[in-house]
Amino acid sequence: MKSVPPNLQMNLDGIDNFYNPKEGKFDTPFTGPIKIPRGTFQLSVPPIVKIGESSSLPVLPMIQDNHLHIIQELKDMVPSTTRPKKNLKYCLRSSIRQLKNLRIHPEEFAIVNKLMPQVPYGRPHSREFLSACKDGNILEVEIMLTNDKFLAYVFDSMKMTALHWACLRGYLEIIKLLLGAHAFVDAVDMSHRTPLHIAAKNGSILIVEELLRNKADFSIVTAGKKTALQLCKDEATKETIKRVMREKYASAFMNN
């Protein structure tokens, strides 16, 4: 085996002498210039650290055998989006008003969930009843309410009750029948509209007066943050709502 000429021999102990940090490359007789960034290698051996001499020992990553744990760790690293908070004050007030409106004996509270519809068209003949309200069929509505007063609480897939539809179509007599059957005057649909919102927007002043006479809450806002007063388009309906608001606030002031 031929010996290597002295001019081509390398001293590996001084390999750092062949690295030019300014140009970021090695230049040896064997290889010629090779560009290697300084951060990709280490010329010196890291010092041996004994336990007890340093409190900042490197921490090895924990390896999980189950991939589900890894997925969960990744999920925990992603900040979760804040869920919209429910208006608990409104929900409580609404529930209390609904229970009062039902006028049932306290012993019957346990079966309220069975009587009140929990899903769209949640009672027998719900579709027929809502259709009668939409069509303005007063006689049919009256007969069906006589047979089942809890039909006044049914709602469709958009959470619109019979009272919503009667206000939308402008059927004042059907509205009186529904309110007489203790239909919830402040029921909200998917857009958080009450019957008062719909009547006010349509400018149905007689219906607005009837709803307010039955203690409709004018302070409820829609999903778009609008009150019934803000949805009014005509001055007469606005003045009707403002008058009831003044009377309520004046009464509250006098009682305090």
UniProtKB/TrEMBL annotation:
Keywords from UniProt, A to Z, are: ANK repeat, Repeat
Q: Name one Pfam family in it.
A: Ank_4
UniProt ANK repeat ranges:
158-190, 191-223
Please verify whether the record's keywords include Repeat: yes
Recorded GO cellular component terms are: cytoplasm
Write down the superkingdom of origin.
Eukaryota
Q: Which GO terms describe its molecular function?
A: enzyme inhibitor activity; phosphatase regulator activity
Q: Which residues cross the membrane?
A: none
Q: Does the keyword Zinc apply?
A: no
Q: State what protein this is by name.
A: Uncharacterized protein
Per the UniProt entry, what species is this protein from, by scientific name?
Stentor coeruleus
